[in-house]
């Protein structure tokens, strides 16, 4: 291999990592800006979660398709197209004048992100094939992606407080332009690495329709109740659509998602437990943002800084605890305890009240949540390609990201619905005893906090369930006692991606 080609690979890594930083930034940056954007655009409390959900659902629903497009169309071309589209969608979001325009822009960001993310990881996989070099490349990529979560919270606060929430969208444009230009001139994709099997269009359509219907059913339950005929009909329709997707995938020659990828017990256990954990975590992001700003009166900057202990805990859990123990103990002995530690962190946050102390309740809760999640995520990522055939390694990596993104979409919708229902019931029961306007406002604030804590109790239960699934489904030994095939050795370095998610 020539010295020029070698140098170009490392230059290409710079632009790929920059693109990943932009995607990670976008997930956390919008959380901080959401209360301001909601007020300006007149978005209702029931619909506010769609600003997060529209992005997560489009991203999660299209990731498998995006990975397949990259294989077929060329990874470099897909990567550049994803960047340009993401920049355009960000410009649309920043210029939004109403709720529909904002939600449309977020869905477009998710769709182009689904092109961008698998193409970026695929490029790294095909350009860095020597094991030590590959590990170093994925390590650099992962470190930048992980740091992006923390930067997003702080940058979101600074932009919202000192400029305007719209700049949390506009800031993506220079990132995307630099990364696209650099990728176009520097990346040299190896020849002969495309997969030219025909596209599984029925699989794509059924998976997207099934997932959109499922999340909409959770959202609809908030306004019309869980027993409403339309809500029940939507849940039934989603089950039918996803069952039809599974049937199609078992019959077609080149399926979007070969069923052998998810039916192996270790991989299935990872996708299921990780998806559940993300359901719990994404909902919490939304509630804590609103609690800190609307109840405790934190500024956007202070809110961003308040989240840093959780990000720090996650990075310590993954790089110090998970990485050091992963070669010494079986994965389930890291994943199950990790999820349980995160559940204990959530238990702290069920104690939220109007005047709760950040230092005595929120801080330890966030640190434990981050430590537990980080410890569990590390072995989960390494297991996501456990035992796959080489031809399936890409879709197995995409599947773990899909379970995270869809988990985020469902988590935000489900927990927001639970919180809103509990808030409504609390206010209805207590507003009668409030005589003055000040007392009524106090009851409404108390109702909001009651809603948040109710939803967080559900999140605790979901994390315990994730721990049980990890302990029972995952039975592989410590690395070295089993063989993991395929090109998934960089999978564990994808760890920071769940911070997006968001």
Question: What does this protein look like?
Answer:
The protein has 502 residues and is an all-alpha fold. 79% of the residues lie in helices and 0% in strands. It has helices at 3-41, 45-73, 75-94, 99-127, 131-162, 167-170, 172-186, 201-224, 229-251, 260-263, 265-295, 300-306, 308-325, 332-349, 358-383, 393-430, 437-473, 498-501. The two termini are 39 Å apart. Residues 1-5 and 480-502 have low confidence and may be disordered.
Q: What attributes does this structure have?
A:
502 residues, MFS transporter, transmembrane, transport, globular, 18 helices, MFS, disordered C terminus, mainly alpha
Helical fraction equals over 70%
Alpha-carbon distance between the two ends = 39 Å
Enumerate how many helices there are, as a single number. Answer: 18
* Largest sheet data: none
What does the radius of gyration come to? 22 Å
Strand proportion: under 5%
């Amino acid at each position: 291999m020539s010295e020029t080609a070698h140098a170009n690979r490392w230059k290409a890594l710079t632009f790929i990592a920059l693109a990943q930083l932009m995607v990670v930034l976008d997930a956390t940056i919008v959380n901080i800006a959401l209360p301001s954007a909601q007020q300006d655009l007149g978005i209702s409390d029931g619909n506010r979660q769609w600003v997060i959900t529209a992005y997560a659902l489009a991203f999660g629903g299209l990731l498998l398709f995006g990975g397949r497009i990259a294989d077929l169309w060329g990874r470099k071309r897909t990567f550049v197209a994803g960047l340009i589209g993401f920049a355009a969608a960000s410009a649309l979001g920043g210029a939004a004048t109403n709720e529909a325009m904002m939600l449309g822009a977020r869905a477009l960001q998710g769709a182009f992100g689904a092109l961008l993310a698998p193409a970026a990881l695929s490029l790294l996989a095909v350009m860095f094939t020597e094991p030590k070099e590959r590990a170093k490349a994925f390590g650099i990529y992962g470190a930048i992606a992980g740091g992006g979560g923390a930067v997003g919270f702080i940058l979101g606060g600074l932009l919202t407080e000192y400029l305007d929430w719209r700049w949390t969208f506009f800031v993506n444009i220079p990132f995307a332009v630099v990364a696209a230009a650099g990728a176009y001139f520097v990346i040299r994709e190896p020849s002969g690495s495309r997969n030219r099997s025909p596209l599984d269009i029925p699989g794509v359509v059924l998976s997207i329709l099934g997932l959109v219907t499922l999340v909409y059913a959770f959202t609809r339950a908030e306004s019309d109740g869980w027993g409403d005929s339309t809500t029940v009909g939507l849940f039934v329709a989603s089950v039918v659509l996803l069952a039809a997707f599974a049937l199609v995938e078992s019959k077609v020659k080149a399926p979007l998602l070969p069923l052998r990828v998810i039916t192996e017990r270790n991989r299935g256990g990872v996708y299921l437990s990780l998806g559940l954990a993300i359901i719990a975590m994404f909902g919490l992001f939304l509630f804590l943002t609103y609690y800190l700003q609307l109840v405790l009166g934190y500024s956007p900057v202070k809110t961003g800084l308040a989240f840093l202990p959780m990000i720090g805990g996650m990075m310590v859990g993954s790089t110090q605890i998970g990485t050091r123990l992963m070669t010494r103990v079986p994965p389930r002995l890291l994943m199950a305890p990790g999820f349980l530690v995160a559940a204990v962190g959530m238990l702290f946050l069920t104690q939220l009240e109007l005047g709760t102390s950040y230092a005595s309740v929120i801080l330890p809760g966030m640190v434990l949540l981050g430590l537990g999640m980080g410890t569990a995520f590390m072995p989960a990522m390494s297991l996501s390609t456990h035992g796959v055939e080489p031809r399936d390694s890409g879709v197995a990596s995409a599947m773990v990201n899909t379970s995270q993104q869809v988990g985020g979409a469902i988590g935000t919708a489900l927990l927001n619905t639970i919180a809103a229902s509990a808030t409504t019931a609390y206010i209805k029961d207590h507003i009668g005893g409030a005589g003055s306007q000040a007392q009524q406002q106090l009851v409404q604030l108390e109702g909001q906090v009651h809603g948040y804590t109710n939803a967080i109790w559900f999140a605790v239960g979901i994390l315990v369930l994730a721990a049980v699934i990890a302990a029972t489904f995952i039975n592989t030994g410590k690395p070295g006692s089993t063989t993991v095939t395929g090109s998934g050795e960089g999978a564990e370095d994808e760890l920071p991606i769940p911070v997006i998610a968001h």
